[in-house]
Design a protein that fits this description.
single chain; 108 residues; mainly alpha
Amino acid sequence: MKPFLLLLLAIATEVTGTTALKMSEGFSRLWPSLFVVVSYAASFYILSLALKYLPLGIAYAIWSGLGTAATVAIGVWLWNESLTAARVIGILLIIAGTVVLQLFKSPA
């Protein structure tokens, strides 16, 4: 269970960094810009800890898929970005694609 908790923490810090990236307005605001760098560094460090226990492909698929979905949700919530049917389908396809890649991967 510990590796998946690390992975969830890595996702949370990456999503936080991406949110701060939007708030940094192209790195023109100091504090959000610093938060971006710290958050991304923390996310990659925590992801590296999870990778001690999880296969790279599985960890990265979960990290990127859930991170993408969470980032879209935050965009809708904080910045009133539109959530069209096409966007929902696209996000679901990203998540489904990562699942399919892991389910049908060739043995090492």
